[in-house]
Design goal:
Blueprint lengths: L31 E2 L4 E2 L9 H10 L4 H21 L8 H11 L11
Antiparallel strand pairs: 1-2
Organism: Actinoplanes lobatus
Protein name: Flavin reductase
Length: 113
């Protein structure tokens, strides 16, 4: 005989509904424009400085999640550059990942001495 728990069971998150402890991605005014991977707002290579600042703040408590988020975008950028006949930019790794690895958790360039 299986014991019955008191009260209704908590519903499991659906694929479209992230768990409550998942990082929440805030809307930005500096999204990438694909397939060029330039910022839609300022036209600089994405992630531009403003978006980097936003990402550091958004993922301030979870550097690994930030790196995974950026790695997924890096893969998409490589695919876009190859699919659209553009040579892969020489330093996509540095552009997407290197800056985030150089920053101490939770700090931006402006916070550093």
């Amino acid at each position: 005989m299986t014991p019955v728990a008191d009260g209704p069971a908590s519903p499991a998150p659906t694929p479209t509904e992230p768990p409550s402890d998942a990082a929440q991605h805030n809307p930005t005014t500096h999204p990438p424009s694909r397939p060029s991977w330039r910022c839609e707002n300022c036209g600089k290579p994405w992630p531009c400085e403003q978006r980097r600042e936003e990402l550091l703040a958004e993922f301030r408590r979870d550097r690994l999640a930030l790196l995974l988020y950026l790695a997924a975008h890096l893969v998409d950028a490589v695919d876009d550059f190859q699919e659209h006949g553009t040579d892969v930019a020489p330093d996509l790794y540095g552009r997407f990942m290197g800056w985030a690895r150089r920053h101490p958790a939770g700090t931006a360039d402006s916070d550093r001495p």
